[in-house]
Amino acid sequence: MDIKHPAAQARSGQKTKRRRTPRLAVKEPIRVFATDYRGRDFVEDSTTLAVNLHGAKIRLGRELIPEQEIRILSRRTGLEALFRVVSRAGESEGQQSFWGVESTDPKQNIWGIGFSPPNSVEQTAIVRVMLQCLECRVRELVDLDEALLQKIESADGLLRGCLTCGRTGHWKKVPYGD
Fold first, then answer.
1. What is the largest CA-CA distance in the chain?
2. 175: burial class by Cβ within 10 Å (0-12, 13-18, 19+)?
3. Which residues contact 174 (CB under 8 A, 6 or more apart)?
């Protein structure tokens, strides 16, 4: 089975879709009800890595099959919906694999988040993230590509200039609501 990450599809000449709404880097607690690639039903508690109105990037300890339908429950909102597995989304980390999923009914927003429409900037590899300057505590919502987001998460932040305090300092990814 040949499952390609969207970036690999783009490099191989396959067309990638433009995102309908920006993705937000949110670790949302979820419960997934699905069947693994061996045909075994399972229920797994996990988290999202990014969400938008039309789908999510999720982490699972099970292998899925593209095009299959799974049910996802947002453990924060108590809402659930059917999603279609689009593809594997990046390299596995240990026993964890990452999957891009798309809602079968985008009008059903189980995340409880208001999403703004995409702007004129290409949305194919953009994730919206809340960063905080550790010097002055100001927060900024910034658009990053997935590669930079992964580097920020593995390094627990990044060095960046702050227009508020005028310093170059450490910025950390923080939750939206805190």
1. 56
2. exposed
3. 130, 131, 132, 139
Q: How far apart are CA 155 and CA 2, in angstroms?
A: 31
pLDDT digits (tens, 9 = 90+) for 49-105: 889 888 999 999 999 999 999 999 999 999 999 999 999 887 788 888 999 999 998
* Domain spans of the chain, in order of start: 6-13+23-103, 126-173
CATH architecture of residue range(s) 6-13+23-103:
Beta Barrel (2.40)
DSSP code of residue 96: B
Q: Find out whether 47 and 27 touch, Cβ atoms under 8 Å.
A: yes
- C-alpha–C-alpha distance, residues 126 and 83, integer Å: 21
Among the listed residues 113, 114, 112, 83, the one whose alpha carbon sits nearest the alpha carbon of residue 100:
83
Cβ proximity of 149 and 54 under 8 Å: no
d(CA 56, CA 23): 8
Amino acid letter at 63?
A: E
